[in-house]
TrEMBL record, chain A:
Name the UniProt record assigns to this protein: Elongator complex protein 5
Stated family: Belongs to the ELP5 family.
Domain of life (superkingdom): Eukaryota
Segments crossing the lipid bilayer: none
Protein's organism: Cynoglossus semilaevis (Tongue sole)
GO BP annotations listed: tRNA wobble uridine modification
Biased composition (Acidic residues): 278-296
CDD domains in the cross-refs: Elp5 (cd19496)
A single GO molecular function term of this UniProt record: tRNA binding
Automatic annotation (TrEMBL), chain B:
Pathway connected to this protein: tRNA modification; 5-methoxycarbonylmethyl-2-thiouridine-tRNA biosynthesis
Species annotation: Cynoglossus semilaevis
Compartments, as annotated in UniProt: Cytoplasm; Nucleus
Protein name (database record): Elongator complex protein 6
Protein family according to the UniProt entry: Belongs to the ELP6 family.
Gene Ontology, cellular component aspect: cytoplasm; elongator holoenzyme complex; nucleus
Gene Ontology process terms (BP): tRNA wobble uridine modification
Amino acid sequence: MLPELLKDVEAGGLLIIQDSVRYSGRQLLKSFVKAALNREETVHFIGFEFSEDELRDGLKGPFAKRLHIHSAFTDPLGWTDHPVFTVHQFNAEEITHLIKQTSHASAVTLVIDSLSWILRHVSPSVFCRTLQQLRKGGAVRAIVGLLHADMHQKGIVGSVCHLATSVITVAPGMKAEEAEAKITKRSKSGKVLQDEEIFVIKEDLSVIVQGKSHQTEPIQTGPEEQKMDPTANLTFNLRLSDAERQAKENLSLPFVFSKEKKTALLHSGPSSGRILYEPDENDDYDQEDPDDDLDV
Amino acid sequence: MQWCNRVNTGLFIASPAMYTELNSILNTSPESFTKGDFILLSDKQSDASFLIHHFLSFYLRAKCKVCFLAMVQSFSHYSTVSQRLGVSLAQAKEKGQLVFLEGLQESLSILIPQDEHTGSQAMNFLRDPKLGLQDLYEFVSSKVKRSCGGEAESEEWGPPVLLVDDLSVLLTLGVTVGAVLDFSHYCQATICSKLQGNMVMLVRCDQEEDEGDNESPACLLKGLTHQSSLTLDVQGLPTGYCRDIHGQVEVCWQRRQGDGQNTQNKLFQYKVHDKGASFFARGTSSAVL
């Protein structure tokens, strides 16, 4: 589902990438920026967490002039004299104004890095209302935001994610470069689709899906079994020729209790031992009770 | 105190590189180190201050302009330990290489004002914690910017470095987690990004994580981890106290230029000596082998 989301975030959509300390979702966010730029869309980037240079890194190319960065990194609170964008400007009117000022393109994607930074300074209700106004306002086609889910209370994360049409939760994968994405997508009809995928982000910010996170193992081991024959290079023979098979079948195994064996055991030959007993004179042998001496 | 006692009885012998093992783990040296890094130190039921001493001497040796915010110990404490590591803080201060904010003394002059001169503006948050740490940031930025200004001394020192020991003390003084994160963000924007210097901050995190508590050191640590580029987390041994292994350090690179996502974790055990500390892979302590 990840490539479909990258291909197109639906109009009026809000996509939230949730990450944690364990795995940063910033690369994926950049992938979304690049995908939008490749679609000939105009991207407005409100960046709190990283400098403009760092953002431009990897997003170079002919499309770079369609990327408008409103950097709030150097002065997000207006402590110095020349703030470009401050967190207090985060309301629908200001942002709409900002977007209208720089471009007249119809398809505008607004990217926010990160929502967490704004949530620390704006009350959740105001924050949610602004997001909703931006979505419905018509100035932007879609919004993509990064949210550090582990920095907020569960309730706040929940209510922000309720606004979103798609939520991607990223976590580290089993291997070093792999990551796991849990995707929830709400379509307009109200249908909710869920998916889990393992993906890798290449250096050019392209996302390659390695497979579904739960079904990966059987899919991978299936073809491998066909390819590899474990009996290929053995030092011994596993198969039998007809003659060998017959010889094997004719052989009686030592533990099989055959008829011959049985008779041989019951009718002992002349050489086998026998117990002979001749009663002594002193033996008090009672014919009627032979077990008299046993003291029973 | 432990450090001081040890130091006062010993001889001051300067040996050039005490933390070579750590330097090789981090792939850095005073001659060449990556610029623009935000190194976050944290400790849990353990003491990571030996790393603060290391980075202090490391950057002084690297000829950086160092601004040190000492919130938990006095100047003489750091000075004696650094002496042991072969660096003189007093000299560095005299030469203008080191800016030392002695938090304990500054706070005393604010809490018990004795004369007309009531300390610098840097610690204004003590008067009213709601003000935030803007004044502290302005103190830091004025000190590091001056070093890069047009003055003669600017030629002398390399990129600026900010060291803080430790940030979690600010929480106990009434500053909110948000305000501390704002402070570190501004410092990062100025020092790491604009001036291409480095930043080292220590956070103590002894309490258990509490889901509903938004003002705990654990919460601060999470926020700072999102900002940082390298974290060194010092923990005690999970198996308990040991005489020959003092604990373990988890080294975690959060992000790197170029290859982007690189959350590679490494775990080492360490032993702190009189002068420096030794680091080794798990289970390879010289006392065991």
